[in-house]
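Session log. Operator J.P. requested a structure for one protein chain; no other inputs attached. Running the standard single-chain path with token output.
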Amino acid sequence: MQFETIAFVASEHDEAKAASERLQAAWPSVSPHRADIIVALGGDGFMLETLHRFMDRAVPIFGMNRGSVGFLMNNFNEEGLLDRLRRAEAVKLNPLRMRATDVAGHVHEALAMNEVSLLRETRFAAKLRLEIDGVERIPEMICDGVLLATPAGSTAYNLSVNGPILPLTAHVLALTPISVFRPRQWRGAILPHHTTVVMDVLYPQLRPVSAVADYTEVRDVSQVVVHEDRTVSLTLLFDPEHNLEERIIKEQFLL
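Structure written below.
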């Protein structure tokens, strides 16, 4: 990886802020709006925030874990940072684009690196209709919700609701139900990455549903359309021995 300037950004956690101060004292740095590489200090949630914040710049981001999870982060080490950045391997990711229409008819758009999820808002189960590339696949699903996950996001919320882990190079998406009641036997689907998924909320006034794209939430939706946006490309940097593909494979053998 070739670069001339570095910027450091940190989450609000004390450990992350302290690490950022030490690194800025040790290495010359510039504003993240001018840098060739951004070093993000925090956890996976902060990495998602950083990716969204600097999405327009398409600048490579090297994360170091100063948070709680760190699946998208490298191990934290203040020594030899410049050499690590030069040796880092790049992973290109395309986000999901969510187009959510609320019950008032307003349209909201957002991008998601991990997943787009629909979640019930009240004690009433959600009733959803699923259409895949113009074909109705499930006319009525009774559930707590459903999500569409990218390969990078397949080890996050998707995994916690028993969705499949997807290799980065598979070019597929995971459509996974959340606490599905009917159809009782349906456990989700693996879809081509170019698929467009339409999720209609049945009885949205009686059974309100929210839509979430990473950390952007839209309340009281009536329809959500999701597809992979190939016009947007984001770059994560990883140490060669701890690349994201290896982490995704390793996650499938954890007992």
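Operator note: The first helix runs from residue 14 to 26.
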